[in-house]
Amino acid sequence: MNIKRTVTAIVLTVAVTAPAAYAANFADIRGHWAEHIINTLANAGVVSGVSETAFNPDGIVTRAEFLRMALGAAEIEEATYRNGECLDVRANDWFAPYVQSALDKGLIPEGMISGYSAEIEDNKVIFGGEFNGNTPIKREEMAYITQSVYQYSLREGDLQKLETPIDMPFADVSTISLWAIDGVKYAYTNELIFGMKDGNFAPQETATRAQAASIINNLLKKRGV
């Protein structure tokens, strides 16, 4: 995979300004199923570790962290935070401009927003509810957001690149939330996300840092980056 170094840096840590660390120094990914993916992305400067010697592949990823990664991989710019129009997000939250951008573009599914509401006031949309950005993201949520940003990143003439959803082979399809099923189907059909080794999709499980790196890698490949 040839990843251009012009891709916006995606940091798989809470600290937005953490310095990049290269995969050759990550002792904790040796033999891990995502070792090659993490190595490739880290050497391209796309992801970094929690330290110079650790990536913590099985650690958690929050909703806000993954949203930032997905927007960066799709080269979708953040937006200026607007007080009172961005759910439970506050101006001093590091992820405020990313959530504002995603809301403005309709990239966050209503099912991820507790108490969702949207009202038009003075020709602008006021979003209500809670995004809970520091909550660990579930696999179904990660799939939905990835599909949303991928579709948004396509030019109108390229929408035919989206494959028509097919039935998923997972044994636990019935456990995917109703609001997420279409997004998961599209993400699976378009090879943005895959299932687990045991034949399940595990939609309600918390996504790991390795899984997040894998889906970002898939997103970059789909975009031809």
Poorly predicted runs = 1-9, 13-23
Main beta-sheet annotation:
2 strands, antiparallel
Number of helices: 6
Overall pLDDT: 86
Strand order of the largest sheet: 1-2
Question: Using only CA atoms, what is the Rg?
Answer: 17 Å
How far apart the termini lie comes to 9 Å
Report the helical percentage: 25-40%
- Principal-axis shape equals globular
N-to-C order of helices and strands: HHHEEHHH
**What portion of the residues fall into strands of 2 or more residues?**
5-15%
Query: Which structural category fits the helices and strands?
Result: mainly alpha
Number of strands: 2
Overview of this structure, please?
With 225 residues, this protein is mainly α. 30% of the residues lie in helices and 7% in strands. The protein contains six helices and two strands, in the order H-H-H-E-E-H-H-H. The protein has a two-stranded antiparallel ribbon with strand order 1-2. The termini are close together. The N terminus is likely disordered.
Which helices and strands appear, and what pairs or packs with what?
Elements: H1 35-43, H2 63-73, H3 96-104, E1 114-121, E2 124-130, H4 139-153, H5 181-189, H6 209-222
Antiparallel strand pairs: 1-2
Any key phrases for this structure?
6 helices, 225 residues, mainly alpha, globular
Short description:
This protein is mainly α and 225 residues long. Helix content is 30%, strand content 7%.
